[in-house]
Design a protein that fits this description.
- This is 1-acyl-sn-glycerol-3-phosphate acyltransferase.
- It catalyses: a 1-acyl-sn-glycero-3-phosphate + an acyl-CoA = a 1,2-diacyl-sn-glycero-3-phosphate + CoA.
- Its EC number is 2.3.1.51.
- The protein is an alpha/beta fold.
- It folds into two domains: 222 residues, HAD superfamily/HAD-like (Rossmann fold), CATH 3.40.50.1000; 232 residues, Glycerol-3-phosphate (1)-acyltransferase, CATH 3.40.1130.
- It has 19 helices and 15 strands.
- The strands form three sheets. It has a seven-stranded mixed sheet, sandwiched between helices.
- The protein is elongated, with a radius of gyration of 25 Å.
Length: 478
């Protein structure tokens, strides 16, 4: 078993309940540290001092570095409305931090939540940088260094002592005491958090700095190593350009290969096969599929996939194979690359802003299914920032009920690591996909299926946390 699997097993077999606190540090533990910006990026963002200050603390450093960070906060943010910094924090999250969330941290946070633990995110940074991540992870309790405000405007001073070294430990200790909590687990990467680690019944170091690694080895504390969240390299950009070129070339080859028959569906199927195969090969992505037999029968079916990456539109058709089309947002119809291809293979485009029109547009999809063509749908409706799942919309389930076909879940574990949520650049690697057994929805009540839809959603999360075929995917202990 891996160190991460050992940590998960310890959570599952350990004490459960809200009286147990699990404390996570932020930078270097939940999100990867930001690299030093290159000269070009500094020149183009020289005027964005508030943003630079917000992100500047998410780097490992000592007392001097943190002192300079606090001085920059006090100097740069004085007189700025807190609402403006809230907006800045959310923008910085979308543009800078979302792709740096550690998938391993998401899994640990979710395991603690499923164990009923009280999860805290504790950071020496201001809450403007931390709260968007906490909200995404469903972490209710956030302890941060907070700038003082007066009438909603920052004064240039701090509201209380900074959460640094013993200050962070004291804030966590005081919170736990006031809430009647036992500090069961602490996760952090820095020796500056040694006072905090010493409060925990089960301290865990995450990619520790050299000083903390020495302490962890001496005291026998477990150490986790999360994979670095690196920016795309120039070679990744070149591979992606090659991938898009391969997509067009593969599509043309597929159509020409079946054009002699004059059957549009045969050409569409060949287009899908050749285009996806060529694209994945060009960008260096391989698929590792569990449960592939469920894609072959029964057909037609509604294939549901969790949505993490723009490249899911390449991955899912390759996994599903055979006659299949999809449903997409109307904006994709005019996409210069994907638009013509999606129109050729019969994708239905929906206007999400007009519910009545969207429902009317689904009627032809039911006919398509009845004629033998499967569809692939993302029930979340949008891409997620983590492996976690958003709420499932019911449209795909209504379609399956009306067409009299089953629903087949397709669970994608790590496409978001190949290409971050809003990134057009892909990295090489292996994408894990699990296809679950078909679900018969013929007996579902279209007017009362909230619980069944939620059960399907939970099956995705269970699969993500207990990946089939892995030694560390044992059933959850109760």
């Amino acid at each position: 078993m891996s160190a991460l699997a050992d940590a998960v097993a310890a959570i599952r077999s350990g004490p459960h309940g809200a009286e147990v606190a699990a404390v996570f540090d932020f930078g270097g533990t939940v999100v990867d540290e930001l690299p030093r910006r290159g000269l070009v990026r500094r020149v183009f963002r020289r005027g964005d001092r508030r943003r630079a200050t917000l992100l500047g603390g998410i780097r490992r450093g000592g007392d001097g570095d943190y002192g300079r960070f606090l001085q920059a906060v006090e100097r740069t943010w004085a007189g700025v409305p807190g609402t403006e910094l809230d907006d800045l924090g959310r923008s910085a999250f979308r543009r800078e931090l979302a792709g740096r969330l550690f998938p391993e941290a998401w899994q640990l946070v979710r395991e603690h939540q499923l164990a009923g633990h009280t999860v805290l995110l504790a950071s020496e940074l201001p809450g403007y940088a931390v709260r968007p991540v906490a909200e995404l992870l469903g972490i209710e309790h956030v302890l941060c260094t907070e700038p003082a405000t007066e009438d909603g405007v920052l004064t240039g001073h701090l509201d209380g002592p900074p959460l640094w070294r013993a200050g962070k430990a004291e804030a966590v200790r005081a919170f736990a005491a006031s809430a009647g909590l036992e500090i069961g687990y602490v996760y952090t990467d820095s020796a500056t958090d040694l006072p905090l680690l010493e409060l925990a019944a089960a301290p865990v170091t995450v990619g520790p700095d050299p000083a903390l690694a020495t302490v962890a080895a001496d005291r026998g504390w477990p150490t986790l190593e999360f994979r670095a969240r690196r920016d795309p390299s120039p070679l990744d950009c070149l591979r992606t350009v090659a991938g898009f070129t391969a997509l067009i070339a593969g599509a043309l080859v597929g159509v020409l290969r079946k054009s002699y028959a004059g059957e549009r569906q045969a050409m569409a199927d060949a287009l899908m096969h050749d285009a996806t195969t060529a694209t994945l090969r060009a960008i260096g992505v391989r698929l590792r599929v569990v449960g592939a037999e469920h894609t072959r029968a029964p057909r037609p079916a509604v294939f549901l996939f969790n949505h993490q990456s723009q490249f899911d539109v390449i991955i899912v058709p390759k996994v599903v194979g055979g006659p299949v089309t999809g449903i997409g947002k109307k904006e994709l119809r005019n996409h210069p690359l994907f638009g013509p291809l999606m129109r050729f293979v019969g994708v239905t485009f929906l206007d999400r802003t007009d519910t009545a029109r969207a429902k009317a547009a689904l009627a032809p999809v039911v006919s398509t299914l009845r004629e033998g063509l499967s569809i692939a749908v993302a029930p979340e409706g949008t891409r997620s920032y983590t492996r976690g799942l958003g709420p499932f919309k019911k449209g795909a389930f209504h379609i399956a009920i009306q067409a009299g076909v089953p629903v087949i879940p397709v669970v994608i574990r790590n496409a978001g690591e190949i290409a971050w949520r809003d990134s057009p650049i892909a990295r090489p690697g292996i994408v894990d996909v699990a296809v679950l057994p078909p679900i018969d929805v013929s007996g579902w009540d279209p007017d009362d299926m909230d619980e069944q839809v939620e059960q399907v959603r939970r099956s995705y999360e269970h699969t993500l946390l207990n990946w089939p075929g892995e030694k560390d995917s044992a059933e959850r202990l109760t």
